[in-house]
């Protein structure tokens, strides 16, 4: 009976947790829809009645009196609510939903995301001009009767209000903003991590940058597009405090010590295997700097660090370690190992020539260290003691 009861209890817990998540998700959607509609009302009355910004202060006072226990009616938040409705007007919302559907359906690649973002922005600009010309013709009674389905189906309804505030504050480009929404959902970013990624230029580093690799020649098309998509240039390791003379071992030690933060910058799917992984080849000892396993690609990834600019011989060294990993680590169930060289600068032409003729999948990216993290973001990152404990386990 005890065994059967334990199974029953486990099923109960699972269903309750699912229901709790659905309740929170539904509540978030309803709140965002409310904010969107309230913003439409503010815009309508300001544009048709000639009211200025003071109406928001008056609304704040009266709403707090009427709903004393409900948060979200401060002048600051009402201004965000107005901005939320203004930047996601109905025409823009419909175009955003089209672009968002394409992002969800496509296998992500650098070029496909660039194309979707460009098309969406061009269409959105046309709709914004059209909306401006029509002086935002929304009647008060129409706001109550708006078709809510486009908003419910939109990615706007799937992220929290605090995420929206960050996006409105820090990313004015609507196309990039849409990508950050998708990325935040996929990666499970908190609002502070999202802010940090925007400030570090994640879109530019992952989507806009020219990446140096030989993936198209060495990997199947689906894998080559995906690997090229998730790689960044440069990588930013804010948590590494290194001076100009720091060697690879110093940087490597800090990356390994702060493995949780390192994995955050690498992206989803990376699992840490080890540092200075030992291989004995022909009676000699060799040590790969950092070894990871990628759960989606089902392959090992060798990361070699250079605390200097890239040199042609670095590609040969990385190629050697990938060959060794394929023989010593890879099993029949794994795909071919991928190599990633991280350096403190590179000549792209030299790097491209260095990868020519090599049959293993290799990439070369820059990395940066010692960028200061604002105090308000530090609390959202794992504390050193927790990271070290996780690493030991």
From TrEMBL:
Q: Which residues form the YhcG PDDEXK nuclease domain?
A: 230-382
Q: Which UniProt keywords apply?
A: Endonuclease, Hydrolase, Nuclease
Q: What Pfam families does the entry give?
A: DUF1016_N, YhcG_C
The answer to whether UniProt assigns keyword Hydrolase to this entry is yes
Question: Could you tell me one molecular function GO term of this UniProt entry?
Answer: nucleic acid binding
Q: Can the keyword Transmembrane be found in this entry's annotation?
A: no
- Domain (YhcG N-terminal) spans 13-90, 139-205
**The protein's name:** Predicted nuclease of restriction endonuclease-like (RecB) superfamily, DUF1016 family
């Amino acid at each position: 009976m005890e065994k059967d009861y334990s199974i029953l209890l486990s099923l109960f817990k699972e269903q309750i947790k699912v229901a709790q998540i659905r309740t929170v998700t539904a509540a978030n959607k309803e709140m965002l829809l409310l904010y969107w509609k309230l913003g439409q009302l503010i815009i309508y009355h300001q544009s048709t009645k000639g009211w200025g910004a003071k109406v928001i202060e008056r609304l704040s006072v009266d709403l707090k009196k009427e709903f004393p226990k409900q948060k979200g009616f401060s002048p600051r938040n009402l201004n965000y609510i107005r901005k939320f409705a203004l930047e996601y007007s109905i025409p823009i919302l419909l175009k955003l939903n089209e672009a968002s559907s394409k992002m969800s359906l496509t296998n992500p690649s650098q070029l496909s995301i660039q194309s979707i973002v460009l098309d969406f922005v061009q269409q959105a600009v046309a709709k914004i001009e059209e909306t401006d010309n029509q002086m935002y013709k929304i009647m008060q009674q129409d706001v109550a009767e708006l078709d809510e389905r486009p908003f419910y189906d939109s990615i706007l309804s799937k992220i929290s209000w605090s995420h929206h505030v960050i996006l409105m504050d820090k990313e004015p480009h609507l196309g990039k903003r849409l990508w950050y929404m998708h990325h935040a959902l996929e990666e499970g970013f908190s609002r502070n991590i999202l802010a940090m990624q925007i400030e570090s230029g994640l879109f530019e580093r992952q989507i806009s940058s020219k990446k140096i690799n030989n993936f198209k020649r060495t990997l199947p098309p689906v894998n080559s597009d995906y690997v090229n998509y998730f790689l960044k240039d440069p990588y930013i390791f804010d948590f590494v405090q290194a001076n100009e003379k720091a060697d690879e071992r110093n940087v490597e030690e800090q990356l390994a010590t702060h493995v949780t933060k390192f994995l955050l910058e690498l992206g989803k799917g990376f699992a840490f295997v080890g540092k200075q992984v030992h291989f004995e080849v022909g009676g000699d000892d060799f040590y790969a700097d950092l070894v990871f396993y990628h759960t989606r690609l089902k392959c090992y990834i060798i990361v070699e660090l250079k605390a200097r600019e890239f040199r042609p011989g670095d590609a040969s060294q990385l190629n050697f370690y990938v060959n060794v990993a394929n023989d010593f680590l890879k099993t029949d169930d794994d795909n071919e190992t991928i190599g990633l060289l991280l350096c403190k600068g590179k000549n792209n032409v030299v790097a491209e020539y260095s990868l020519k003729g090599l049959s293993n999948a290799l990439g070369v990216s820059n990395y940066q260290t010692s960028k200061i993290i604002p105090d308000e973001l530090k609390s959202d990152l794992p504390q050193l003691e927790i990271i070290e404990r996780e690493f030991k386990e």
